[in-house]
Each structure stands twice: as structure tokens, then as C-alpha cells.
């Protein structure tokens, strides 16, 4: 039955996943603001009473036309404060409604409730830090729901009735994404691993049994069993069993069992080498801040991200339709490929750069089905077969791909979604093959479920008869 649910929901997953807001979508749903008419304090002053050792992310945006700083530390702690006075975000239902209206451009009547636990549409444990969350339900035709964080004042998710329906028949049963299970990440991961492992054992047993049976001569063509259900299950299992097996195996690999795959981000030591120092509030000097305000005040923006490379502070400014990149430490500073190579050579005395190429298109490991990811990027390969993908505009390492990461890419994404360029870039060929294989797997599971129900009924009748 579980296999049947996985296959049926797989049809939906081809076109509809779980409704999450990505980084780009979160930025786009913000309103533009300007620094030109606003008095703002430097981040070091705003966060002087907070314990912030190493910064992972530093962002600036506006909440209801008030400039806000957001800091995420290396340990994952998030602190948001108003730039004008250093006060924490203080939301009310009316403010949350205003934020939701700005994000959706909806003017309808809405119901605003405060939830103190994560719900089905923000089901991950990382959302707990944002509690309590303001849930805004609009009365528009699409029944739009908006979740607003009380911690940052930002939108966490936006869903419509259409999104929620397809999630209930697609991603939620497929990933076992029920809130009460998903919130406990370790338990959820172990549940998926054990179910997939048992499913893999069951599938392999079925394939072996089918092959043994295949050696025996049938009484008639395509009639190895008197029972029609057995016959259907046997032949569909023989034809699609291998694909079912690879789907279950790749689902198992999606959970990275035994944590065998390394992180695709730089570790803290390598990140410090890349930056030239640990990124702290003191990294932005008074001169840097003056330069920043002068540049950033020239035009409106939706959000600003700060980064550090080779002891130089950079910021990325997201406007309505464009993205600007500036260095505030030295306006004449120009990075070079030689600097990237030198930094990567510092990561490990035994690791040296062997190749550098500029990618103007995605490759097998740095890619995006929605074509949103940054291009062009610089790809650097080392003698340890590590690939580093660098955004030359922001001087940040977007992805580190070690040999195990690339192996996992094929064992999970390749096998599970048939994510091979000759298929995924050729629609509707990919769709036709996926639907064909999913249909075969579904029929195999339907016949197995039917046989299982018949077996249970037969055993139950026998048990009752013996009583």
C-alpha cells in the first residue's frame, strides 16, 4: 500500500512539489525601500548588546518601510533589529497583516491568528525559532495563506488552496511530510530510511523470485499462474521491477544514510581563509559604513546582502529588476582568478588547483531546473577532485562538490528523477518516459496490494473458521 501511495503521488511530484518560498521568491515579495531619507545606525552599534562572534549572513531590508538588520550567526542563531534604534522586531496582528498584504499585493479582508507551534505549511524544525508565527488567511478566490515570522518580521511561506491541495496528494504522502512527523527531523529521517530499506529488501526478493520462476516453462503464453492477479503482478514486476528497485534505492540515498556525504558548503576554517578573517561586526569599519551608505543611498532596493573576501567587504544589492555588486572597502578593488586559486590552495597543503574554467551554462553538478541560479560562474578543480563553483560578482563560493557529493547526485537525483541532461532538457521526452515507468510501477503495486488484501481475507476466514 505504501508503495502504491509513493507511485501515485509520484505523478503529482513531476509537476508540483511542496510549496516553499525560495531565496529569490522571498526577496521578490518584499517592497522596495531607500536609505536616502532614513537615519540608520551601523550594525556594530545596533547589535552591541548581542553576543555575536562569527557572522554567517548579514542582510538589510525593510519591514513596513522601516529598515531592519538581520544577522545569522555561525551557530544558526538569528537576530533582527530595527536599524534606527536597535529595537527588536515587535509585531502585532495589524503589522503582520500589512506585511502579508505587501508581500502578496492583496487588499482582501483577512483573518489573522497567532500560532505557537509550527503547522503543516512550515513543518521543519528550523521554523521553531520564528515562533510565535502570525498566520494570515485572505478571503480571496485562491484562499491565500501567509505565515509571518515574529522574529524577523519576514514572510516564511505563501500558499494558495491549489498549492495545499496538490501538496496533500503529492509531496506530503510522497515524503511522509506530515507536520507531527517532519518536525522531529531525526525520527523522520530514520522512518524514511527504514521504510525504504524494507521496501528495497521486498523488491529485491520479488525480482529474485520472479527470475527463478521465469526458468520454469509456463503452461501457456503469459499464463504462469491460474490467478489473474498473480499473472499481472508477475509480468509487470518482471518488466518494471528493476526501475522500482532503483526508485526505492535512490529514495533511501536521498536521506544520506550514515552521513556519508560531506557538506556542499565551506567549513568554518576554509570560510575564514576565503574571507581573510572571521566575519564579525567589527569587520565593517566606520569608513566601510560611510562608503556603503553613500553607494546604497543612490537608488531603491529590496534587500542587501554583505559578504567578505580577502579582507574586503562586498555587498549585493537586489533592486526591482537588477542586481548590483559593490566593494566598500576599496572601490578600485578588482578580484582575479589568481586570487581565487591562491585561496583554495590555502585550504589544504595537499590540495592544489589543477584547472579553472568559466561556465556560461550549467553543468551536471551546478544546475537549476528553474534556471534561477547565477551564471556565469567560475569552476575550479583541484587534485583532490573537489569542484568549487564561485560567483565572480559576489566573490562567494556557491557550491563545493567533492567526489562523494557527485556520486550522491547520480544515486539520488539521477536515479530518482531520471535527472540526466539528455532527458531533463528534452521535454516532453522526459515526461513520457516518467509517466510510462510510473504507470508500470503503479500497476505492479496495485496487483501487489490486491494480492495482499486477498491473502489477509483468506487467513482471517481460516482463523475464524478454526475458532
Give the topology string: H per helix, E per strand.
HHHEEEHEEEEHHHHHHHEEEHEEEEHHH
Shape: globular
Helix content: 40-55%
Beta-strand proportion: 15-25%
Helical segment tally?
Answer: 15
Amino- and carboxy-terminal Cα gap: 29 Å
Mean pLDDT: 92
Rg of Cα set: 27 Å
Low-confidence stretches at least 5 residues in length (pLDDT < 50)? Answer: none
Question: Care to describe what's here?
Answer:
- There is one protein chain.
- Helix 9 packs across helix 15 (429-466).
- The protein is an alpha+beta fold and 467 residues long.
- The chain has 15 helices and 14 strands.
- The strands form three sheets. It has a six-stranded antiparallel beta sheet, covered by helices on one side. A four-stranded antiparallel beta sheet has the order 4-5-6-7. It has a four-stranded antiparallel beta sheet with strand order 11-12-13-14.
- It has a domain at 1-16 and 170-262 and 433-467.
- It has helices at residues 2-13, 23-28, 43-46, 93-104, 161-169, 171-175, 179-182, 185-214, 228-253, 268-275, 286-296, 337-347, 403-417, 421-424, 429-466, and strands at 55-63, 66-73, 78-82, 110-115, 133-138, 145-149, 155-159, 303-309, 312-318, 323-327, 353-359, 377-382, 387-391, 396-401.
